[in-house]
Amino acid sequence: MSTIDKTGVGPTLGVKPVGATGRVYVIKNTIDLTDGVITQADVYQCLAIPAKTKVVETCYRSLTAAVGTTLTMDIGDGSATNGWDASVDGKSAAGIESFAANGTDARAVATGNGYYYDTADSIDIVMTTATAITAGPKFELFALCVDYS
After folding, report:
1. What angle do CA 98, 45, 64 make, to 5 degrees?
2. Which of 100, 27, 19 lies closest to 58, judged by CA?
3. pLDDT at residue 7 greater than cutoff 80
4. Cα distance between residue 136 and residue 46, in whole Å
5. What percent of the chain has pLDDT over 70?
6. Would strands 43-49 and 121-131 be described as parallel, antiparallel, or unpaired?
7. CA terminus-to-terminus distance, the chain
8. In angstroms, rounded to a whole number, what is the distance separating the alpha carbons of residues 12 and 83?
9. For the residues of 69-133, what is the DSSP string, one character each?
């Protein structure tokens, strides 16, 4: 099992996007795993969440499906690996989206429609099942955030 930083800024730093002038903003990252080896239990840190931020929702959007037999992924963070969305299909066709199911996923409801990060963290993708994957997926990951700093 490996932990791979794909945030572009380091998962403990957190960063608001350029032009985020209000207290509500979206963080987005495109993750391309099409040329890498996918190993079960690997953790990909995808979105750096700044301290004092409430994440209201996350969204996974497939751009390119993984090639192989089975790829399921969890979306979470350092303390709840499947807190945002469990069992996302990494082989889903381009354009398919998966959202945290408001009312069921732990992070979506932990503090009433979102989860408050008092310290910086990252939104991660964990490869929960990877069977005969010869090319990983390419996807976008979004987080709807509220700044409380």
Report:
1. 45
2. 100
3. no
4. 15
5. 79
6. antiparallel
7. 34
8. 18
9. SEEEEEEE-SS-TTSSEEEEETTPPTT-EEE--TTTSHHHHTTSSSEEESS-EEEEEEEEEEES-
Domains present along the chain, CATH in parentheses: 3-12+24-147 (2.60.120)
Question: Which secondary-structure segment (H or E) carries 141?
Answer: strand 138-147
What is the distance, to the nearest Å, from the Cα of residue 131 to the centroid of all Cα atoms in its chain?
Answer: 21
Calpha distance 8→10 (Å, rounded): 6
Given a cut of 60, is residue 15 above it in pLDDT? no
Q: With bands split at pLDDT 50, 70 and 90, how would you rate the model's confidence at 4?
A: low
* Encoded amino acid at 95, one letter: G
| CA 9 – CA 57 distance, rounded (Å) | 21
Amino acid at 137: P
Residue type, 3: T
Residue 54 backbone dihedrals phi, psi, to 5 degrees: -100, 125
Note the pLDDT tens digit of each residue in 97-135. 888 765 557 776 665 678 899 999 999 999 999 988 889
Tally Cβ neighbours within 10 Å of residue 27.
24
pLDDT surpasses 80 at 69: yes
